[in-house]
Amino acid sequence: MADPKGFLTTPRQEWPRRPVSERVRDWNEVYVPGALLPVIGAQANRCMDCGVPFCHDACPLGNLIPEWNDLVSREDWRAAAERLHATNNFPEFTGRLCPAPCEAGCVLAINQPAVTIKNVECAVADRAWEEGFAPPAPPERLSGRTVAVIGSGPTGLAAAQQLTRAGHTVAVYERDDRVGGLLRYGIPEFKMEKRHLERRLEQMRAEGTRFRTSTTVGRDVDAAGLRARYDAVVIATGATAWRELAVPGRELAGVHQAMEYLPLANRVCEGDLAVSPLSAAGRHVVIVGGGDTGADCLGTAVREGAASVTQLDIYARPGGERDEDAEPWPTFPKLYRLSAAHEEAGELRTAPAADADARLFAASTLRLTGDADGHVRSLHVVEVDAGRRPVPGSERTLPADLVLLALGFSGPERGDGLIAQLGLELDPRGTIARDADFATNVPGVFAAGDAARGQSLVVWAIAEGRAVAAAVDRHLTGGPSRLPSPIGPYDRPMTA
């Protein structure tokens, strides 16, 4: 604890965002380049190095937050990077994408703004790359054992890197043409530039991890045959079966899933397309769903030049302060938060029907109507009460010629043949069933991440990847593993 009074004398200061008028004209990250390092030392000084750091419990990775806060405050960046990477394979991802449950669990957050843990993490990760503190770490010797990892999202990548570093020969199978899963085609460039992903993938290749792209296991490669060729298989395909909107008019043209829309915008940024076939340019857009994916669609539509964009959230607008009875510290509270996309939409007034930031809260879709050609033209919405019952007289009509469904995901897809060919059992939620060692009912086959846990956060995905790697290592060696296992398959976030 470099400054015992830092939390008393230094106010919270976050990484500033670029002006809205500037950033909506490009796809670069929304933050001011270089503006984080000058403030981060003082922000790290706000950490109290409390006797029982609840930020550890709030973070499924068990990040050693007080340790690297102290090291950053002393400007020992190399040691801070070592402590950060000791528990997190990809801090440059979590530092940009994670909603920071660690900050909700910060002891300082009991009665003050929390330490800017997420910003400190991002600063350390970026400094580590700049200073060469994150070199490839290939194994000293190979075990002679082979592992196939199916899926290259954060879970699959974390599992692959851990197993490769343990000496096993790992091949990652990815159905898309590039590695990264949702990190590649689901996360917009303005939230995380793909150079961060590419840099980490080059590190993994240098360590020995192999990647097989444009390969759908179950369709291009027989899943049972793959299992026979490898000593172990890790399924980390994610929960990509999207939820549907069961209302009249769903069949109209112009109604698309968010994960049909976002990948095309990302492909434009990758240079694959000049213009997205689903571009929002000049169109009235309505996004059904109030979560992060909906916000990603919002920021994307704004950058594409939509005529208007409105986001529907079925929940009532949350308050700005924690409800100590319903969501006491250190649980992660549901608060009114203004993402970069909502800030942009609010300042640009993209949604005339909304009060402030493009969101209509407590709003439920009744039906969609279209024109004579069968293309959607309007969305009929109604206000709902706490029990999601329509409020009489509250129906309204929104112009809509592009409707995006961001309603979340129900589990792994079943149409590719993977689950059937391996004979995997599913749990009642539709996710892959597994035991306390992440093992499925098929010997040598393990399941991790959203495919088994269900839709979750990037920080839980990485924790799952690290934990399943330890389980696979134990299976392959027949003894204890030196790999860390931060969580068990049945662990869940803290709740009241």
UniProtKB/TrEMBL annotation:
Annotated 4Fe-4S ferredoxin-type domain residues: 38-69
Keywords assigned by UniProt, alphabetized: Amino-acid biosynthesis, Glutamate biosynthesis, Oxidoreductase
InterPro entries: 4Fe4S_Fe-S-bd (IPR017896), DPD_II (IPR028261), FAD/NAD-bd_sf (IPR036188), FAD/NAD-binding_dom (IPR023753), Glut_synth_ssu1 (IPR006005), Glutamate_Synthase (IPR051394), Helical_ferredxn (IPR009051)
Pathway in which the depicted protein is active: Amino-acid biosynthesis
Pfam families: Fer4_20, Pyr_redox_2
Transmembrane segments: none
The protein's name in its UniProt record: Glutamate synthase subunit beta
Species name: Streptomyces virens
Lineage, highest ranks first: Bacteria, Bacillati, Actinomycetota, Actinomycetes, Kitasatosporales
